[in-house]
Design brief:
- The protein has an eight-stranded antiparallel β-barrel with strand order 1-2-3-4-7-8-10-11.
- The relative contact order is 0.15.
- It has about 325 residues and is mainly beta.
- The chain has one domain.
- The two termini are about 35 Å apart.
Length: about 325
């Protein structure tokens, strides 16, 4: 944990995802501490084998930055960068149609809940990517994280939902961020994570700003070496209703080679964040979380998340051109 900064919107968060192709089950888990606001953010999302999604979000009271432990979820570091645990004990809302979460009040009201427990151990598959830069890269007011790192990981343990239980043996990605954050800071972003087992995986990132070119980058892990990407291109196809991403063609460009990948979204849930700015305007952000099947040019298949954040202007996501 890092020293609590002076910014009103200082956030420190950890995130873990996983997919087990044998169980056909995946999900992600996130805790964010916003101690200067007196609150936190807890998210659990499970993509179930039958197409349903189990989801819960909470804003627990958090007044310090001592640990990731709130609203029934807890993250522990056993050995830094080598072993961590994720635990959850609480309820999730069961969504037969995950797109109902576009209206969260209605979705939580109209769908049943079931008891859920998660016990997962995460172990490092790759070298670390990221850190804390010496110079600030984002303009004041557009900060999204002062420090940020990511790592491809393996995960094993159990997930229990109601009277069902699954043994999990999968792979995924984790990240850790700290610094001031508003979800409205980026104009839009695309964050692709993929794991093909312990020997290959990637992360691609495109962050667009309201003004200026934004950033493109990521990494590819080949089992021995972390290849930093100097560029990242992405093209998406969209559903007619709701304008959610469905198919993805991306290229990660390293110093001496390129990797092309095609993604097919297997299931998707739209999440929403709202904030009122200093002028009293309501700002609406949509974060579409797609559990995605990835296929490389050589035929290898992997799985991961495609996370699309967009500001919503006049009812539409702003990043449809990419």
């Amino acid at each position: 944990m890092h020293e609590l900064g002076p910014e009103p919107n200082f956030n420190e968060s950890m995130y873990f995802n996983v997919y087990d192709p044998v169980a056909s089950l995946g999900g992600f888990f996130r805790l964010g501490n916003r101690a200067n606001e007196g609150s936190g953010e807890m998210t659990i999302c499970l993509y179930l084998p039958d197409g349903r999604v189990g989801f819960m979000f909470g804003r627990p009271r958090v007044t310090n930055n001592d640990a990731f432990d709130a609203a029934g979820m807890r993250f522990e570091v056993v050995t830094p960068f080598e072993e961590l645990t994720v635990r959850y004990d609480g309820e999730v809302t069961i969504l037969t149609d995950p797109l109902e979460m576009a209206d969260p009040r209605r979705a939580f009201r109209d769908n049943p809940r079931e008891r859920c427990s998660v016990e997962l151990t995460y172990t490092g598959d790759s070298a670390m990517f990221g850190g804390e830069p010496e110079e600030r890269a984002e303009p004041t007011g557009e900060e999204f994280a002062r420090g940020h790192y990511e790592q491809l990981v393996g995960a094993h343990g159990t997930i229990t939902l109601g009277d069902q239980a699954w043994d999990i043996e999968g792979h995924g990605l984790r990240d850790h961020s700290w610094g001031p954050r508003y979800w409205q800071a980026p104009w839009y972003y695309r964050w692709l994570t993929a794991n093909f087992g312990a020997g290959f995986g990637f992360m691609g990132s495109r962050v667009a700003r309201r003004e200026g070119p934004g950033s493109r980058g990521g990494f590819v892990w080949d089992g021995e070496r972390l290849h930093l990407c100097r560029d990242f291109t992405i093209r998406s196809s969209w559903s007619e209703e709701g304008r959610y991403h469905r198919e993805i063609d991306a290229e990660l460009i390293g110093a001496d080679r390129r990797w092309k990948v095609h993604g097919t979204v297997m299931n998707l849930i739209p999440l929403r964040n709202r904030r009122t700015d200093e002028q009293g305007n309501e700002l609406v952000t949509r974060i579409s979380e797609g559990m995605t099947r990835w296929e490389l040019e050589d035929g290898r298949v992997g799985y991961g998340l495609s996370e699309y954040l967009d500001q919503i202007v006049e009812g539409a996501p702003v990043g449809l051109a990419e």
